[in-house]
Amino acid sequence: MDRTERVTLTNMCMITNGDQILVLNRNDPTWPGLTFPGGHVEAHESFHDSVVREVKEETNLTINQPRLAGIKQFYDDNDHRYIVFFYIANEFTGTVKASNEGSLTWMSKDELMSHKLAYNFDRDLLVYFNEQIYEHLLDGNHDELF
């Protein structure tokens, strides 16, 4: 029995400054709307280094001590597993500067929840905002939180 499979590894980071959250309004037509900065883990790159790099590329901020908050997993159109590592960072240096990924805005949790979010991002937010939830699993017709 083969125990290997094709996997795409990615990350996403909620950056906080007091009660404000840095939100990315994505330009990507395949997944538009509000979300958090993040991206792909490169070959031979640690998960930690990948989230620090992606946040820097998309926001111009250097995050310190990002904390793993949970994960999301689903299968893509090619039936390959897709894993997103959810991080939280509340220490950073630098000045916010948008990239070609989209515009950046600081907003409160309530403001975030009242805007148009990227598809299914409302479910992802439950992992960030509820310490009892650590995984968001999308599998066919199932959308489960653990």
Describe this structure in words.
With 146 residues, the protein is of the alpha+beta class. The protein has a single domain (7-139), classed as Nucleoside Triphosphate Pyrophosphohydrolase. It has three helices and eleven strands. The strands form two sheets. Strands 1, 2, 3, 4, 6, 7, 9, 10 and 11 form a nine-stranded mixed sheet that branches. The protein has a two-stranded antiparallel sheet with strand order 5-8. A hairpin with a 2-residue loop joins strand 10 (135-139) and strand 11 (142-145). The mean pLDDT is 96.
Key phrases:
3 helices; 43% strand; two-stranded antiparallel ribbon; Nucleoside Triphosphate Pyrophosphohydrolase; 146 residues; globular; alpha+beta
List the helices and strands and how they pair.
Blueprint: E1 7-17, E2 20-26, E3 33-35, E4 38-40, H1 47-59, E5 62-64, E6 67-75, E7 81-89, E8 91-93, E9 102-107, H2 109-113, H3 121-129, E10 135-139, E11 142-145
Parallel strand pairs: 1-7, 6-10
Antiparallel strand pairs: 1-2, 1-4, 2-3, 2-9, 5-8, 6-7, 10-11
The CATH homologous superfamily corresponds to Nucleoside Triphosphate Pyrophosphohydrolase
Number of strands: 11
| CATH topology-level fold name | Nucleoside Triphosphate Pyrophosphohydrolase
In CATH's first tier, which class applies? Alpha Beta
Count of separate structural domains? 1
Order of helices and strands: EEEEHEEEEEHHEE
**Major beta-sheet overview:** 9 strands, mixed
Helix/strand structural class: alpha+beta
Low-confidence stretches: none
Q: β content, as a range?
A: 35-45%
The radius of gyration over CA amounts to: 15 Å
Mean pLDDT across the residues is 96
Gap from first CA to last CA: 28 Å
Quickly give the CATH architecture. Answer: Alpha-Beta Complex
**Overall geometric form:** globular
The count of helical stretches stands at: 3
**How much helicity do the residues have?**
10-25%
